Amino acid sequence: MEALNYAWLIVALPFVAAGVIAAFGRLMPLKGAEVGLAAIAIAWVVAVMIGYQTFVNGPVEAVEQVFWSAPLGGSVLIEFGQYVDGLTAMMLVLVTTVSFMVQLYSREYMHGEDRFTYFFAMLSLFTFSMLVLVVAPNTLQALVGWELVGVCSYLLIGYYWLEKTNSDAANKAFLTTKFGDIGLVVGIIVLSVGVSAHTDNVFSIRETTELAAAGMLSEPTIVLGCLLIFLGAMAKSGQMPLHVWLPDAMAGPTPVSALIHAATMVTAGVFLIARLYPVFAQSLAVMNTMAIVGTITLFFAGFVAIVQDDIKKVLAYSTISQLGYMVAALGVGGYTAGIFHLFTHGFFKALLFLGSGSLIHAIHSNNMSDMGGMRKFMPVTFWTFVVGSLALAGFPLTAGFFSKDEVLVSAQIWASNGAASGVSSTALTGNLVFWLGLAGAMVTTFYMGRSVFLIFFGTHRGVSAHTPEEVEAEVAAGTLDPQAEMEDLDQAAHDQDAVDDLSQQDVAAGHAGHGSDHDHGSGGHHLPHESGWQILTALVVLAVLSVPVGFLGGFLWDEVGGSTERNFETWTATHLLEEVSYPFLADAHPVDLEELHGGEAEGADADHAGDGAEEGEAAGISTDVTPLAAGADLVLATEAEGGEGEVDNHVLHGAPEFHLNVFVLALGGFLAAIALAWTIYGRSRPMRDPVLHMGGVTTLLENKYYFDDIGYRGVVVPVRDWLAPAASWSSNVILDGIVKNTGGAVKRLADVTYFTIDQKVIDGGINGGAFSAAWISSKLKRLQSGDVQRYAGAMLAGVIVLVVVFAAAR
Amino acid sequence: MLNEQGWLLSLALFFPVIGAAIIVAMPSEAERTVKRVGVVLTGITLALSTVIAFGFDYSSGDRLQFETVVPWIDAIGARYHLGIDGISMPLFYLTGLLTFLCAIYTTKIIPEPGKPKAFLALMMLLQTGMAGTFLAFDLVLFFIFWEVVLVPMYFMIGMWGGPRREYASVKFFLYTLFGSVFMLVGFLSVYFAASDAGLANPWDIIELSQAAGIGTSTFQTFAFLGIFLGFAIKVPVWPFHTWLPDAHTEAPTVGSVLLAGVLLKMGTYGFIRIALPILPEGAVRFAPLIGVLGVIGIIYGSLACLAQSDVKRLIAFSSVGHMGFVMLGISAMNEQGIQAALYGNIAHAVVTGMLFFLAGSLHERYHTRDIATIGGGMLVKMPRYGALLVFVSMASLGLPGLAGFWGEFGALWAARSPAPAIAANWSGLYLGLVIAGAAGTVLTAAYFLWLIQRVGLGTPTERWAAEPLADVMPIEWVSWTPLLILVFVLGPFPFVFNIQDPAVTNLVSFLGGG
Question: Would you call A476 exposed, middle or buried from its count of C-beta atoms within 10 A (0-12, 13-18, 19+)?
């Protein structure tokens, strides 16, 4: 387990890189990119080692270390450290892989940008922040990482801050997620205060989950805490209706969209729920909330993607929809299914975004209406994009197929468990997730089919619409020189200022310019051409990965040389999770913590596969079950195997099986949707796109269900235009008015005292003293501070009176 | 042992007075020399503070160190009781540091009408007053330092301030004095009650705290009310905040930095050092009110910020929100709450002090602080300056990993589990306060992001496009760097918690479980 101890290195390297790039990046030959790439490459190697070790050893004992702590008051400590288990390792592998590829890609994509160095520093800083969250041993450190990724996201969405729409998008993203963070912060506090009754280590994720699983946290604490944390997860992971920031976040450069707004940061909410899953699993209300929110999101977000023209918007809504799958899976007891989908989605969605970036780079437009026929110009981009699309659509044997299948199977199991336990709401949510999940998969297939056909098939519709023949002629004539790009790149590294001039002169050679996300409007006056090696390497690597990662957790794992004893579920499971059952289902009982810890020594590398009572709806590959001697409930569950009326009340379902009915339904849906897409868009772009002519439905979808309008008119405007001025006015006019009027009244009282009582009544009788009084008053009037002294005197008199009164009353 | 040398603390405390005398004795023509001597003198004070910081035994931070007890006014039994513990230490050191940085800043940037001699002399007098407040352990001595602070600040605003300086300075002076009067009455009543209770030194803060509550519950409630008013105006707690925006808007940059950095802390320090431990029963009665007012301050202050058009006034209102978190921490009356409040104090001093420096330099360049007139594009015109504004704004909006976060989070955490006596009756209210306080962080983020967008982002307007605007100047780097480092370091390394911890534990034990 040695490698696990070095997880901190993976976190530290990008941080150091960010600092070095920010400080010295401009002076370096590659403008700091080399530092970022070197750091992430080393981090990636370590992450893969940790991933391998945790994978081959099944559910591992988590390595928990604290490096730094400070007292938050009393016995409550702030701790920074690392917590490394299979779930951590999975995230480490995902984050470092995607970050590595995105940084490589960005070298080419962002070259010539004014703030290239800054961009790389931010990518490294983001990677660091995400990893802080991933390795967090306590909710407080998780919160720190969570907020830091938010600010990196803000800074990168607003990368092109010269234009207001982009900084608006950045603000919207930050504030919407910050709204969710109300829930996260208060949720963490509620849980930790509940935990504080049992242990001093109040933020510890391990202790929190164990106490919850043992039934030692009160129900209000769990329900309130989890629902509040879920609010935070909803905002971060784009669940409706807090998803509104995510499509706008596409204002950032495309590599940022791939890394942050598709593969990693937006999954932080899902990850955090998974981290705290033994807590969430305690409450039916919490599970149902997740299932319903997730289902709404997965179903409705997909439809919006259908009517988009901007390819990045299609992918953004697709991301929201897929995040909905993950959350819905977690809500129907599909712990493994949810994070498995997180894992596979990270690869193929990053691939799709990077592919769309390659296209945008080539034609200087995000709009599919400006593309068409691109498969001739950009074959590598085309094939990798197709792989990504198939994976997203769940085509058999791709990564998305296995993970989506898992989600649906989990929903089925949940439904039947609910029915068997007499819990009608789980039966309902299980069926909801299953059927709407299937329908959503069809929608996914349709919009991805539409996109692929519109982008790559038909004829090129760019400003410089050429026929493929013309293109080939140009290639033959040498005007379309792939080397030109590379030369520019080298030159740009030496002389950034010259880039603009160069690109002007180089247009004929097909130079792609820079800042494609940025509206370079007239950029399409040359032929699109394939991207350079760095972009293509990233695409190919991710495309290659988009297939095998699915087998890890799929039912074919045995067939491809894997072992049932070591699959995605055993990788990401923990010993605690193996014991946890849903208390609202039949025959559940709390985890015995002593037994859990006692059994850990010998159970460390034992296999857990036996705890899943398989649903047994379809004959699949039988699992070789070796029940773990961890508790009587396991035996019970194993006995229940195959029985229709029995309940699997455990979080883990055991190794995945082949479910023929799910397979048939999913494949049928896929084929139907792809056929429909082909019919409409396959040969050429229809003059009249039917999805844009569906009357009220199209209007509804084009307006994104009016969520943005509701948010703007219902929240932003009232706060900014009504409440804020009202607060300011009441402060300046009412509260300060009281102060001013009090002062004025004292002043008048003083005048009366002096001019009437003193001068006329008292002084009128004593003429001799008048001269001196007049002399003093004229002096006083000239001094601005005269008022102060007079009031101070009056107050001193008041003090004396009050003291006397107080002393008398005592 | 070094930390038994009480004279050292007195020297560090009163050296600025000597310094002020030296400055006054210098010829007024030699302005450059005067400014440099000012840096040297405040530097010596800081060096003395550093010696004290090194001599301080942090493991027993609950104990008064560098203590001096000398009979002073025998007629009323007041003593010259000076000392420093883990709660005072960070505030004391910060006072020395901020004054030093302000002196450096003043060498290049001094507002109209100049006169560095008077300016620096006043600043040093102010320093003694501020530092003395954190070191005095006798109520009479405390009150004198408290009042001493008013005069130099009054003149700083009144002479070197903006167009409405006279109004703002008089308001600042009178409003604070108004509160002080009630505070003094409270002190006197405590004195009489303590005498009746047979305390040997009825002015002594330590003895009063250890008495664990003097007088009847009713007495404590009324005495607390008086002391509350005095401190609440200084903090300022909503709705006693209206002097603050005016004072900040009109004060010279250095005045604003010290006002936000130290003066406001005197109020919260007073609550923690005096009001809570001496009158615990009164405090328990008032705690829910303090919490509610604190949270109103958070929401209200942030909303008011959204409506401001003047950068400096916006930052001033942001102080109302931030001090609201400090008050929320105090209202929990437990260790976490006091820790959070004290940490919030330090963080706010560093962060908002820095923001006021930035606002001052903004005015130096644009000669306006109106957001609409500046109109964006600062990151184009002055990239380093803009980056600093973004960085410090992020700290101020409570970004975890920077200074501002722990105070806010700690206060919210503490308010979820307030002292048992409060939790018994007000648990639901406090949960509401936690949620509302957390909601306030969103508003805080909103006004800072909006400020950054309107001032920093976008392209410069026509008016400024051709204007040569200097980026951060060397003198600014010198005077800002220590604060910038602290803004960062206090995030990942919240070491101030460690310094305060023993003293806070000790202090909370006086609250007697509420």
Answer: exposed
